[in-house]
Design goal:
Helix content: 25-40%
Number of strands: 41
Shape: globular
Radius of gyration: 27 Å
Bound molecules: alpha-D-glucopyranose
Length: 795
């Protein structure tokens, strides 16, 4: 689909934006996994290292994301006429031509303004030799080419601009008059260095921020400015900075006690037809990492930048390769093969936030484990690292922290009840993918004191959740489960969650399966019994005739039942009944029919229906969102993706494909959808909203992992098991065939499935390298890494 704002490149690996007047600033995440340059299509955005929350290099103006300010800007001034502009067309004025290419690992903005053309490429170098945290150069590159397209010689002056936060993003938003007092910048060796003498981080609030920011270039500057106030000027704005308009430069050697910008200035004299290129480098040096002290110097050599560009491209190609799908749906192929994998890298690296919708970077155990779930088939060792890090945020009694971070900072305990349960699902999947049973014995610290194995963490988490059950025998919902916004249902300690009952039952079943494999006989039975009990309880109390209710509040009222005027049916209670196999077959069929009848629509699947229209303290914040927005009956992609799995499990291949396409961002009508057409957003407004179909909360969502796994594992049906690979597709009847190339336990499976009779499900024959295999048998794992040609016939 070619919407009026741009299109995908022929090979699907780039999104080419051809207009500046997008419905919102579409972003790219330029990162090596540690350093993040969140970059809009026109150079807006901000940069951070590991944690935007504590370690922001540059500032964000979070209250007005649509301004797309500040960012990483270069202004150009024609020294003969005094006319000035921005190389990316932002934040100053108009362009004669504009194109922005969102690539996998880079953004390239091409403009022509006042007879000068500019090409600016932003990227973050990735070390191809190592994925280890700390082995990545913490910096970003701005590659600029400026060409004189006019027929007269041009004398141009260029000014870079970025606003240096240097520390904690919340402090900057709330207390910037205080925190700016501790900022300091120095100019030496054609480089600007910035430090912050006070961090205010949890723990030791007096400590200085332990990093130095730098900005340098491969071209000698002719001037500089260290002060935001001096660069922008009194009563000027970023669209008309005084330094550029009046060509006034601070040229300070040292500047302290106010907001810092690391501006360098260069002169270019260009004959007609002439071009000049150079690179700018923004980054930071950790004060306690001697290996990084030479980082600014290293990148001042243009050949180093060239090399970094080549290596980074190669690394992204490798990450995105290795697992490929080829179905009759070209848009699905492009999303799965490139953009969905790319988005999973971002969620797995940075959790929730940073984005133009999230306040800062906070990620709960629930989110982080689901992000790892998406990463498992792509890069299991990256997923492993994320799982282990995440689980070190659990106290000895099994309570998780509310959020986690990558810097060992203190966190508070969570008041959400479901967080540790996700480990069972993700761990089971990781074990099936890798066969790495040793992970269970890895010792991890508890967040308070002591340590235990990962398997021990699983036990403690499950015990914690299951020991808090209500009078119906279902888990207490407290201040919310997966649905954070149902935070009024169990506030008095009595409300119970049906969804969590279903999930916990399943988690116990998975844990029991793991226990069986490792010979932990005691737990096998105990956990199976717990699973059976919960399953029995859910079915005894939560079936409402046509679907499962979602919860019971503190006063015993049903949430999500046929007698509720608002919030009559909730998607998750139906989805997870099927997904966890807690529903008997006839109920599974019935509740899916209820989903199709009440929740499926042209924009996806509503999280519940009808929307709440007034605050209900027994529901919570969910009822305060506008009808049809967020958890209040929006088409919630994350919950919709769970349901795709349930559709596959109940054999609804046509509906599944239809719902997938309804959620596919590339097919969303613009400008109404607003969000990027190349990544999944958390939700779009539901049918009860006047904005039905309008997207929000882009990029950082569990939808990325689940949309990917829904296609790979459930639509194409290729599912790792402890002892082999299961193939059990659920596709639209109209698909005559599909192919998947997938690595599994070191071997490559080249799978070709044909569908001669036009079915949704069912496999009648399987062969490997021409030899038949019983259709119900797992694809075996060869002793030696091999390539296997697998033919599947559906019917
Ligand atoms: C957001 C949160 C996630 C939660 C969901 C529903 O996506 O990140 O943790 O489950 O909203 O409330």
């Amino acid at each position: 689909m070619d919407n009026s704002f741009g299109h995908f490149s022929e090979d699907g690996r780039e999104y080419v934006i051809t207009r500046r007047d997008l419905p919102s600033p579409w972003l790219n995440y330029l990162t090596n996994g540690d350093y993040l340059a969140l970059t809009s299509f026109q150079g807006g955005g901000f940069s951070s290292y590991l944690e935007q929350r504590f370690n922001s290099l540059t500032r964000r103006y979070s209250n007005i994301p649509q301004s797309d300010l500040p960012g990483r800007f270069v202004y150009v001034r024609d020294q003969d006429t005094g006319e000035y502009w921005s190389v990316t067309g932002h934040p100053v004025g108009e362009c004669d031509s504009f194109r922005s290419v969102i690539g996998l690992g880079y953004t390239r903005v091409e403009t022509e303004i006042a007879g000068i053309s500019h090409q600016m490429t932003y990227f973050v170098p990735k070390n191809p030799q190592s994925d280890k945290e700390g082995d990545q150069d913490p910096c970003e590159i701005w590659r600029l080419t400026v060409s004189n397209e006019s027929d007269r010689p041009r004398k141009l002056r260029l000014y870079s601009y970025s606003e240096w936060l240097m520390g904690d993003v919340e402090h900057d938003m709330r207390f910037s008059p205080f925190f700016r007092l501790f900022k300091k910048a120095e100019y030496r060796g054609e480089t600007v260095f910035g430090t912050a003498g006070r961090w205010g981080a949890p723990g030791d609030s007096n400590a200085p921020w332990p990093y130095t920011v730098f900005f340098t270039s491969t071209r000698p500057p002719v001037g500089h400015d260290l002060s935001t106030a001096s660069f922008v000027g009194l009563y000027h704005t970023l669209a008309s900075p005084r330094a550029v308009e009046q060509d006034t430069l601070g040229n300070q050697d040292l500047f302290e006690g106010d907001d810092v910008c690391g501006s360098l200035v260069w002169d270019l004299e260009l004959a007609p037809g002439a071009s000049e290129s150079f690179d700018m480098i923004l980054g930071l040096v950790p004060d306690d990492a001697p290996g990084f002290q030479d980082l600014p110097l290293k990148y001042r050599d243009p050949t180093v930048v060239d090399h970094a560009w080549d290596e980074t491209r190669t690394w992204w190609d490798a990450y995105l390769g290795g697992l490929e799908v080829d179905t009759p749906d070209a848009e699905l192929n492009r999303q799965v093969n490139f953009w969905n994998k790319y988005q999973i890298f971002m969620t797995c690296s940075f959790g929730r936030g940073p984005s133009y919708f999230h306040a800062d970077q906070t990620v709960s155990m629930r989110d982080s484990l689901q992000d790892s779930f998406g990463m498992i088939p792509l890069d299991a060792s990256r997923a492993r690292e994320n799982i282990l890090r995440t689980m070190s945020f659990q106290y000895a009694d099994g309570t998780p922290t509310a959020t986690s971070n990558r810097m060992g900072m203190p966190e508070e305990p969570s008041d959400k009840v479901d967080l540790p349960v996700w480990l069972a699902l993700v761990l089971d999947d990781y074990l099936a993918e890798t066969g790495d049973w040793d992970i269970l014995d890895v010792h991890l610290p508890f967040f308070d004191e002591g340590e235990g194995t990962l398997y021990g963490h699983l036990q403690r988490g499950l015990n914690r959740v299951s020991s808090d059950c209500g009078e119906r025998g279902l888990p207490l919902i407290g201040r919310g489960d997966w649905n954070d916004a149902l935070n009024g249902v169990g506030i008095e300690g009595k409300g119970e969650s049906v969804w969590l009952g279903q999930f916990l039952s399943y988690a116990f079943r998975l844990a029991s399966r793991i226990a069986e494999r490792i010979g932990d006989a005691g737990h096998v039975d105990e956990w199976r019994t717990r699973a059976d009990e919960l399953e029995e309880r859910v079915n005894a109390v939560a079936w409402d005739g046509e679907w499962y209710v979602r919860a019971f509040d503190d006063h015993g009222h049903v949430v999500g039942g046929k007698d509720c005027d608002e919030g009559r049916i909730y998607l998750n209670a139906q989805t997870w009944a099927v997904l966890t196999e807690t529903a008997p077959p006839e109920r599974a069929e019935a509740c899916m029919q209820a989903v199709f009848k009440h929740l499926l629509n042209e924009h996806g699947l509503a999280a519940n229906w009808p929307a709440y229209t007034a605050y209900d303290p027994n529901i919570g914040v969910l009822s305060q969102f506008p009808p049809g927005k967020k958890e209040n009956a929006a088409c919630f992609t994350h919950a919709g993706a769970f349901n795709l799995v349930a559709m596959a499990k109940t054999g609804f291949g046509d509906e599944m494909h239809q719902a997938y396409r309804a959620m596919l961002p590339a097919l969303k009508p613009q400008p109404h959808f607003r969000m990027e057409p190349y990544i999944f957003s958390q939700y779009c407004a539901g049918p009860d909203s006047p904005d039905f179909g309008q997207g929000a909360f882009h990029w950082m969502t569990g939808s990325a992992s689940w949309m990917f796994r829904a296609v790979l594992d459930w639509m194409l049906g290729i599912r790792p098991q402890y002892d082999g690979l299961l193939v059990s597709p659920c596709i639209p009847k109209t698909w005559p065939e599909f192919r998947v190339v997938r690595t599994f336990r070191g071997s490559t499976y080249q799978i070709h499935a044909t569908n001669p009779n036009g079915v949704n499900t069912g496999v009648v024959s399987v062969s490997i390298d021409g030899a038949d295999l019983p259709a119900d048998q797992l694809l075996p794992i060869p002793e030696q890494p091999s390539t296997l040609a697998v033919d599947i016939v559906m019917g």
